[in-house]
Amino acid sequence: MEPVSERLDVTVSGRVQGVAFRWHTQRVAGELDLVGWVRNQPDGSVRLVAEGPRRQLEALLAWVRRGPDHARVEDCRHQWQQPTGQFDAFRIFG
C-alpha cells in the first residue's frame, strides 16, 4: 500500500440508504486499498471518511458520485483534509 497522503470526507444524499450503498462503498474502498469508514446519517444521507493515496481517493469519489445500481445520488459534497493515520481498515458504522 502506498503511504497515506490525503483524507477525503464525503456526504452523499439522494436515494442512498436502503440500497446497500455502505456495503458497496466498503467493497470499492477495499479494492482501492483505502482505510476509513462509512455510515448512514440521521438525515438520510451517507457520510464517509477515507484515507490513502490521492489517486485511489479520486477513484472512490468518482464511484460514490454514481453509487450502486439501486441508488440515486442527487448531491455529493466532499472536502480534502490532512490525513490522521488513525484507521487500519475500511469499516461500516450505523
Describe the structure.
- The chain is α+β, with helices and mostly antiparallel strands.
- The protein has one domain (6-93): Alpha-Beta Plaits (2-Layer Sandwich).
- The protein is globular.
- The protein has a 5-stranded mixed sheet, with helices on one face.
- The chain has 2 helices and 5 strands; from the N terminus they run βαββαββ.
- The model has no long low-confidence stretch (mean pLDDT 95).
- Strand 2 (35-40) and strand 3 (46-52) form a beta hairpin.
Largest sheet: 5 strands, mixed
Average pLDDT reading:
95
CATH-assigned fold name? Alpha-Beta Plaits
Number of domains: 1
What would you call the shape? globular
- The count of helical stretches stands at 2
**What is the tally of beta strands?**
5
Strand content: 35-45%
Distance between the termini: 27 Å
H and E order = EHEEHEE
Ranges where pLDDT stays below 50 over 5 or more residues in a row are none
Quickly name the level 1 CATH class: Alpha Beta
Radius of gyration: 12 Å
SS-based class: alpha+beta
Please describe the topology of this protein.
Blueprint: E1 6-15, H1 21-31, E2 35-40, E3 46-52, H2 54-66, E4 72-81, E5 90-93
Parallel strand pairs: 2-5
Antiparallel strand pairs: 1-3, 1-4, 2-3
Brief rundown of the structure:
The chain is of the alpha+beta class and 94 residues long. The protein is 26% helix and 39% strand.
Which key phrases capture this entry?
alpha+beta, 26% helix, 94 residues, 5-stranded mixed β-sheet, Alpha-Beta Plaits, 2 helices
